[in-house]
Known about the structure:
The chain is of the alpha+beta class. It is built from 9 helices and 19 strands. The chain has 2 domains: about 300 residues, Rossmann fold, CATH 3.40.50.1820; about 100 residues, Immunoglobulin-like (Sandwich), CATH 2.60.40.290. Strands 1-2-4-3-5-6-7-10-9-8 form a 10-stranded mixed sheet, sandwiched between helices. Strands 15-16-13-18-19 form a 5-stranded antiparallel sheet, with no helix packed on it. It is globular and about 65 Å long. This is PHB depolymerase family esterase.
Amino acid sequence: xxxxxxxxxxxxxxxxxxxxxxxxxxxxxxxxxxxxxxxxxxxxxxxxxxxxxxxxxxxxxxxxxxxxxxxxxxxxxxxxxxxxxxxxxxxxxxxxxxxxxxxxxxxxxxxxxxxxxxxxxxxxxxxxxxxxxxxxxxxxxxxxxxxxxxxxxxxxxxxxxxxxxxxxxxxxxxxxxxxxxxxxxxxxxxxxxxxxxxxxxxxxxxxxxxxxxxxxxxxxxxxxxxxxxxxxxxxxxxxxxxxxxxxxxxxxxxxxxxxxxxxxxxxxxxxxxxxxxxxxxxxxxxxxxxxxxxxxxxxxxxxxxxxxxxxxxxxxxxxxxxxxxxxxxxxxxxxxxxxxxxxxxxxxxxxxxxxxxxxxxxxxxxxxxxxxxxxxxxxxxxxxxxxxxxxxxxxxxxxxxxxxxxxxxxxxxxxxxxxxxxxxx
Length: 425
């Protein structure tokens, strides 16, 4: 496919965003999109635009929002809902702009596919570090999302910089390194056409090879794709699932499958909760025109940046009767780490208004991230506490959470659990 034809196709896709009703007025606030220069190392001369909402807290979260081919940071700002969501939930948004011909991001060169290798990923990470320093932003709440070329860049950034990004959401993307080329071109037709298939292990090895020696936590991944995408074809959706479930040491069998909206099929891997390690949403009958209305809000939920993602209540937990709880603890392990999925069943006749589950991790195990609960400390005797949306557990119902951890060779589960001070079976 020639470059001119690709650019025309991308422009048509951008126009589809407009006709889908995605172009919205900038947020009704005094905060404005501003351009930042001199933000740090920038080998490919990217431009940086920044949106800082009014009333941003002392330690805000950061979202990088990456545009499609032929687009720009300001176009992605005005054409998506992320800025209005930032107004609501008070996080900072970075909008990078590609400057090369066609305004596509580099997701194919050897430099782009290596930690600190060069090209666009280095410039984008410089933007993140600038915001972290300038606004005292929270490194533990740094995220990335993007559409088309930006969706591909989301995969690349999660692979190159697992130490920077805690989660990503890719619209119409392809797996990390699927677009790799060695001839100096920036287009990989086989990948775009969904003809590049690999085993989960092969895909996972490509991610792990981007940052040799890295042994920390891996970012969570949410991926979106339309079944009728004719630009970056639908098979890339399943290949991304294969890649990121392998990176997290998870089975490709979903923990949950549902249809939250008409035409949406959502699968979650490693957990059934909103902040599962991997989440995938297939949109029936839709082409290369994502995100559509309402999808950005689901991204913010997945990142834990919405009101439901905050810490749990401070009221005293309701103690259940003795023996009135049951805990299911499932582990998925790999060479240096594991994920754990935990379900607490209320087998009593009393409703819980909040919960606190205590257990002791075996020696050498250290929690690196968690979803649907807050865990502290990270080693030894750990206590998991509910967040705002899952504290109430009716009789016969259950609550679930999960976490990722490293280990030194001991992959045994905890030997006992205590819910609100009472031992569970």
